[in-house]
C-alpha cells in the first residue's frame, strides 16, 4: 500500500512518496522541487543477494542511474544486506546563504529530503541510516552509523556504493588530480578514477559523480564494478576507523542538460558542507597574486611595487626561501635561501614591512615535510611576522589519516588568522564554506604542466565542478605561445575561478634581478603591453556567473559579474570559431562600454593582443572569434559621464 504526501514549499512543490511496511516492497521516492529529478530507494532482493537497499535515479522520465546497491563493509562483515526499512523523517528545505566570497554573492539551498533506518532482520540487528536528498541539480545521499548496543566504534574496510548506468556512456576520466584526461566509455574506466567524473549520457543529458563534505573520512575514487558493464563502485583510499555515530561524506550525482549547466551548479557541493565556523572573517581577503621568482629582497620589493601599480593584492615566496623544500633538515622558522634556487640575499622581514606599508600581503610556501614537523610552531611565528597566508606544498592526500590532518591544519591556520592555498593532489569537496580561510587549492593540471587547450577545456567542465583551482596562470612564459595565445590567457582569469588568482607565475617585474635556478621564468620580464589592464581590473570573486557556451575539450564562454561590471572569457581549441554572445544579462536601458581583447598578429607587441572599445547594451550580441588555439576577453562596465564610444556592429 502506497501513501503520497505533498509538501508545500515557497514557490515550489516537493513530492515525497513512502510505502507502509509490506515485505520487500518498502520504498522511498523523492522528487526534486522542479519535478525533473526522481530518486527511488527500495529494500529488495537483487541479483541473488540478500534483501538490501537499492536506488535508482531518473531525469524527466529518462533513466540516469539504474538499480544500484548500497552498503558498507565493516571488519565484522557487510552491513546493508538482509535489512528492513522504516522512515525516520521526510521534509523539504529552502534557504539562501551568503558566502564570504564565491562565484555568486548568494547561494540557494533547495531540496527534498528523506531519512530512513535500515535494520538487519537477523542478529545482531545492526542499524544503518541513509539520508537522501533530491535537488534540482541532482541527487545526494550519505550513510550514518549510529551508536548502538554492541557497536560503539567501527572499521570500514570498503564502501560498496554502486553507480550503474543504463548505457556505455562517454566519460572524461583521469587517475591523478593533476593528470591528463582520457575521453573513454564507462566500460574502459580503470580503478582509481578521480572525482568529479563527468559523463555524457546523451547530447542533452550530462552527469557527474562527485563527493562532498569530506573532512575526516577516506577520499572516494571510482572503480569498475566487477561483472557489471558500464558500472562503477566507490573506491576508498584507505580503511576508515571511527567512534560512533559516524556520518560519511555525501555521494553526489549531478544531472544537467549541458556541460555549462553542470558548471553553473557547482554550489551544490558547498551546500553539502557545514556553515562558516569562523565568527570574524574580516581578515579573509581574496586577491590577485604575483609569485616572487628570484627569492631576493630586491625582487620582493619590485613585486610589491608592481602589485601596487597593477591592483594585485599579494606577493608569494615559493619553494626555497627557508632551504631545500624536500630536506627534513630545512627549518621553516628561518629565512635560509636554497643556493640552488637563488644567490639571495633575502631579508624577508624587510619585504613584509615594505609590503605592509603599501597594503600588499605576503604569502609563503611551506612543503609538507616542514608542515608535518613544525606547523604548530610556524603558525604563531608567521602571524607575528605579519605573513598573511601559507601555501601548503605536496600535502599527503587520500587516506583517512591525511585527510583528517589536512583539514585540522586548515582549522589551525584559521586560529592564527592565516589563509591557505593547498597543493598538489588535493581536490576540494566544499570545506571552504566551513573554513573560508581555505582560499584555493591545486588538484589541477594548471599552467605549470603546460596543458594544451583541449585539456584545459576538459578540466573546466570536470575538475572545476569541485570548486576553486589554483591554475597558476603564466602570461609571458614561452609555453603560452606554444600551446595557446595571450588573449586565451587573459580569458583564463575569468573562466578558472580561484579567490587567490596567481597571474604571473613565471614572470618577474623589470626591476627584479634575473632569476637563477629552478623551473620557468621569463628572461625579459613583465612588459608594459596595454592589455595587462585587463588583469588590473579583473576581480577574483564574483556576484554572478553564467556559462554562455560550453563543449568539453572544445570551447567555453563564461560571463561573470562584479558589482556593475561584467567580465567575459572565451577559450577555444581545435578549430577557428565565431560564437554569438548575447549581452541580455546587462541591465536594460543602461549604456555600457565593452573593452574587447583579441589576438591579432598585426599588433606590434610580443603578445599581439588588440584592444577595441565599443558602446554596448542589453540588446547587443557580440560576435566573439578565436583562432584554433586562441581566445578573447571582454570587460564591460557602465559608460562614464562624457565618454563617447563607437557603437558595436
Describe this structure in words.
The chain has 649 residues and is mainly beta. The protein folds into 3 domains: 2-271, Distorted Sandwich (Beta-galactosidase, Chain A, domain 5), CATH 2.70.98.10; 287-541, Aldolase class I (TIM Barrel, Alpha-Beta Barrel), CATH 3.20.20.70; 545-638, Immunoglobulin-like. Helix content is 15%, strand content 39%. The radius of gyration is 26 Å and the shape is globular. The termini are far apart. The model is unreliable at 1-13 and 15-25 (pLDDT under 50).
Number of domains: 3
Strand content: 35-45%
How far is the N terminus from the C terminus? 65 Å
Poorly predicted ranges: 1-13, 15-25
Rg value = 26 Å
The CATH topology of the largest domain, please? Beta-galactosidase, Chain A, domain 5
Q: How much helix is in the residues?
A: 10-25%
Please state the second-level CATH architecture of the largest domain: Distorted Sandwich
Task: Itemize the secondary structure elements and their pairings.
Layout: E1 2-8, E2 13-19, E3 27-31, E4 37-46, E5 49-59, E6 62-69, E7 72-74, E8 77-79, E9 83-97, E10 107-120, E11 127-135, E12 138-145, E13 153-159, E14 162-164, E15 170-173, E16 182-185, E17 197-202, E18 205-212, E19 220-224, E20 231-236, E21 240-243, E22 246-247, E23 250-256, H1 259-264, H2 267-271, E24 287-292, H3 297-309, E25 314-317, H4 348-357, E26 361-367, H5 368-385, E27 389-393, H6 400-415, E28 419-422, E29 438-441, H7 453-459, H8 478-483, H9 486-495, E30 500-504, H10 532-537, E31 544-551, E32 555-562, E33 565-572, E34 577-582, E35 592-599, E36 609-616, E37 621-626, E38 631-638
Parallel strand pairs: 24-25, 24-30, 25-26, 26-27, 27-28, 28-29
Antiparallel strand pairs: 1-2, 2-3, 3-4, 4-5, 5-6, 7-8, 7-13, 9-10, 10-11, 11-12, 12-22, 12-23, 13-21, 14-20, 15-16, 15-17, 17-18, 18-23, 19-20, 31-32, 32-33, 33-38, 34-37, 35-36, 35-38
